[in-house]
Structure formats: structure tokens, C-alpha cells
Amino acid sequence: MVTVAVDVGGTFTDFVVLRDDGTIESFKVLTTPKEPEVAVLRGLREIRQRIDEVLHATTIGTNALLGQVGLELPKVALFTTRGFRDIIEIGRQNRPRLYDLFFDKPRPLVPRELRFEVEERVAADGTVIRRVNPSEVEDYAAKARSMGVKSVAVSFLHSYINPVNEEDAGEVLRRYFNYVSLSSRVAPEPREYERTSTTVVNAALMPIVSDYVARFSRGLGEVGVSKFFIMSSAGGLVDVEEAVERPVQLIESGPAAGAIAVAEFSRVIGVGNVIGFDMGGTTAKASSIVNHEPEVTTEYEVGGEVHHGRLIKGSGYPVRFPFIDLAEVSSGGGTIIWRDEAGALRVGPVSSGAEPGPACYGRGGVEPTLTDANLALGRIGDYLLGGGMRLNRDLALRSLAKLGDPVSIALDAVRMANLEMARAIRLVTVERGLDPGDFTLMAFGGAGPQFAPFIAEELGIGTIIIPPEPGAFSALGLLMADSRFEARLSYPRDLEEGFSRLEGELLGRLGKVDYFLRYADVRYVGQGWELTIPVGRPARLEDVERAFNDRHEATYGFRLNRPIEVVTIRVFAVVRRVKPVFRPQRIGGETKPRSFRKVLFDEWVEAPVYWRGDLPVGQVIEGPALVEEYGSTVVVPPRWRVRAGEHLELTLSRR
């Protein structure tokens, strides 16, 4: 019996198989963007053993909100307190383009005619001023159903303190609709606009995710699989019921798996502070791991614009839910190289994706990409996937030649991509008060190990870790993740009592919990926004205040002589899972290169090419060199060396 982890990417769908003895193996199939489950089921059928369970990372939530892969959002109705009908349209006064007088705000996910005002009221302290009238809700529900509404969001004033009116309304609405999202269950936090937006996004995704999970489950049934878990944006696995009830937590499912893989593998090798650098076929993502824990944020805008890895406030739909803090840029192996109207060379943001893919794939793509550039520079060979996929060098050179001298264009494009990806890493380090020079860079994804040394030089990082199975490391992260379930409470009267209450609720629901993680959203009195602080036990306000002051100074460069307030506390219930074992294949001895290849660094050199599986523990290779494997190629430039480690990792260090 085996467990299979599946990560659906923009170009490839990655599979990692975990067997009973802890050993792993990986493989890839091309993604089917319009029906992602097709590629998943195709890959599962290639596994000739009984599959006990499947762990899955998906981008269906993001794709739906961006209008991709043929997904159409359902009609959603919003039930809110009288006087707050237009809150999702008014929003905040954030302008995505400060000097553009004609910018378009994001289209509301609920049109005005489907927003219904209910005569109810709860005071800021939780006192019920006016109870919900079930007949009024029923009349609106019948009207909404007649207008084709499929899913309903309910967001009443101050329901995060007292949800009684939302619960009463929800009881009526469930008689009319299969999909009902209550803000007190989805996002029980202050800030009416963000809470309502989160609930509306959740309501919009419920039918889509429910349908996807149903199709996926039917397909799994065809191959004899009964258990199925999905990665959440917070870095934990959740069951199908939780995924369907709160699909808003799946928006950054795939990238979160990569960050968890970095955090867990950093424990294995004993390196505390690590920057995760994940470069696949479509995008590159960066995360910071401090003391083996990924940084977590509770603010996100889905479906909005990104500028050099930074989300632009006011351009998307705010979501208040725990997310692993990531920066993402449009630099992947399939990112297209082009010239703008002024003739300047540009890289991205458009990607060739899986269909047709880079020109060198020979699948109809004609635009040059970063993969074509690395092939032209000799940094990757003529075959991918262990020889299972042949690359066409002539097609790569021909596509690059449309922009100028193909080798010069390739080198310039790769350098530009390095700068862009270094900028993304600065977003999760320098802008969080962290010095990237104090971190080790862990590079993965099919393209990550090709670019990592050059990015490290740009950032002043001296050590790089290439983990095992880098081409499928995000999928491997699913196998290294634990199950996590979240609960939160706003404005607790007593910290320890509030945390204990949340832990009791989660324990009662799950039956078994291995341990709890505690966090608090804290700010100075009078501040507008909070920082998320880990909380120990017992929870003492003076400890939280000390940790908050330290974090505030590290992030913003100062602290205030002002009392703090705890806005929201949250608990993650963690259920441990069996993890992979990383055993070395060979210890001692030395392996010779399998071949040699011309590679362009500062000049053309004849570089030795090694196969990663041949390397024994302890072997050191001086650059320039290349280390190839099934899912990736590690580029070792001059001035660098690489050592094979005890846990199947490769460590690059500057000479």
C-alpha cells in the first residue's frame, strides 16, 4: 500500500510515491489545464500498486477567480445588515494605480440586485439589539433562488462577537440552497469589508470546489482510492469536508506545499533559517523559514495584480485567512522572452504553459522562453525526465534568433530573470526585517537549481541546498505535511481561556490532536493593522507584548511606548502523519562524470556532467559542473563547489 502526493502545476503535474518502508520515487506528466483531474488520473494509473490515499495540491480556486481554464463563477447572493448592502463595492480607498484617474475597480462578485438587507442588529459588544426575522430571510431566499442564485454568503454586523443572527439566517437559507457561507464560520474577525469579501469569495468557490472534489473522488474510486486530502494555504492537509466547507483556504494550496517541504526538510538537515526558492515552469515563488517555521500572514488579495512579486492593494478581492507568506513572480522555465514597442528586451509575465510549451519542446510553441535560453547556453541537456522527453536545440536557437543573436539574447534574458527572482526573495526577507545573507537558500522546482547560484550571488548568500527530488519537491511537501485545522476568536477577554476554548472545540471535532499551535494578531492601541505573533503556553499578555515589540522593531525599525491589544487569536490543531525517510544510496568512493558538455558562464567551458543518483555521500565536485537527475539539473558555476550530503541533499558553497 502506498501514499501518492500530486501537485498540479502550470506545465507539469508532479507525482511522488511514498511506500511503507519510507522510500520515495517521483515522475511527471504534462498538465491538462482545462481538466486538471485528467492528468492526475492518468498519472495514478501508471502506478502499478494499490494506492491507500492521495494528497493533493490544487490551483482551482485561484484559476476560478482569475477566469481561467473555462471555470465560470456561480451566481452568489449576499445577505447583510440593513445599511451595509454596498460594502463590497465601496471597499477601501486603496488605489492600485495611484495616478490613474480611470482605473477600474475589481468587479464585485455579487451584483447589487443580489445583495439583500436584513433587519437585524448586534452591537459591538455582542449584545443582540434586534433578532433576525426568519420570514424576512425566507422571502429574500425565495427571490434569490428565482433569480438563479446557487450559493449564498451571510455577513452581519459584529457577528464575529456574537453569531446568533447569522446562525438563525443560515438555518433558513439551507432549506433553499446547498451552499451557504456564514462569515462567523469562515472569517470571525473585525473589519466588515474584509470579512464580507472573504465570505463572498468562499461562497463563490463552494460550488466549484465541491464539483471538482466530486469529479476527483469519482476518478479516484475508479483506481481504487478511498482517502483523499488537500493542502491548505496555511500549510496543512485538510479533509474533503473541510475543503468544501471553507474552500477559501485552498487559494494558495500548491505554493504552500513547497514552503512546508522547505520547513520540514530544514529540520531533517538541521538548518534553522532557510529561504525557499521554488521555480517551476510558469512562476517562481519565495518563502522565508525561520527556526524551521514558515512565516504566516493573514492578509491576501486574490485575483489582483502583482508588481514584481508584490500584491497591489485594491486590485483584487481581500481574503482574511491564514496564508504562508509567499512572494511570486512570473519567471518560470516557460516564461516568454520578448521585445516591447521600444525594442527593449523583456522577460514575462506571459508563459507558454503546458500547451504549447517552450519552443524546444517541439509541441507547436514558437516563442522563446527561459528553458530555450538555458538549452542554448548548455545549462540543460538535450533530454528531460531521465531521457523520456527530448528537447530540440535547433528550435530553441531559431526562436531566440528572432530577437537577435540567440546566445546573447539567452544570456541577457537569464540575467534579467535572476534580478527579478532576487527581488521576490527580498520581499520575504529584507521587507520583513530579515537579512538574506543570514539564510541558506533552498532551491527546487524543475528550473530552480539552474538559477539558484546566480541569485545567491546577487543576494550575498553563500550556501545553497538542493533537496532530494527538487523537480517534484512541492509534491514531496504534501508527504512531509501534517494535517492542520484552524479555529479563531476575536477580542478574547482572557488569553489563556480563549486559547483553551479554541483547542477544546478542535479536539472535540477531530477526536485526536497531536499538538496545537497558537498565534495572535496584535497591534498597538490606535494602530490600523496587526502583526501575527506565535504564542507560547501558558499565554501571558506580557510575553505577547514582548514578542510583538521585537517583531515590530524588526519589521518597521522602531517600537512605540504604547500598550498593545490582541485583536484575534487563532489555533491550529496538528495531527502528525508518517513522513518520508531520506536514506543515502551510497557512502564513500567517488563517481566519475557520465559525459562533458559546453556551457556558457563568463565564457564557454567544457563542463563535466554527473548523474545525481551516482554520487556517494561526501563526494565534492568543483565547478564548473552540471548534476542532472530525472526532474531537474543543478548548475554549479565556476567559484562554486557541490557536496553530496547524508540526507540525499546537495550543498553548494562558494569557494
Rounded to the nearest angstrom, the distance between the terminal CA atoms is: 45 Å
Shape: globular
Unreliable stretches (pLDDT < 50, length at least 5) are: none
Question: Number of helical runs?
Answer: 16
Arithmetic mean pLDDT: 89
Residue share in helix = 25-40%
Work out the radius of gyration.
25 Å
Strand element count: 37
Structural class by secondary-structure content: alpha+beta
Strand percentage, roughly? 25-35%
Major sheet size, sense and barrel closure: 9 strands, mixed
Which labels suit this protein?
16 helices; 37 strands; alpha+beta; six-stranded mixed β-sheet; nine-stranded mixed β-sheet; Nucleotidyltransferase, domain 5; single chain; globular; Dna Ligase, domain 1; 29% helix
What's the short story on this structure?
The chain has 655 residues and is α+β, with helices and mostly antiparallel strands.
What does this entry look like structurally?
By secondary structure, the protein is of the alpha+beta class. Among the domains are: 2-67 and 210-250, 2-Layer Sandwich (Nucleotidyltransferase, domain 5), CATH 3.30.420.40; 76-206, no CATH class; 483-575, Dna Ligase, domain 1, CATH 3.30.1490; 595-654, no CATH class. The chain is built from 16 helices and 37 strands. The strands form ten sheets. Strands 13, 14, 15, 20, 25, 26, 33, 36 and 37 form a nine-stranded mixed beta sheet that branches. A six-stranded mixed beta sheet has the order 3-2-1-4-11-12. α10 crosses α12. It starts with a strand and ends with a strand.
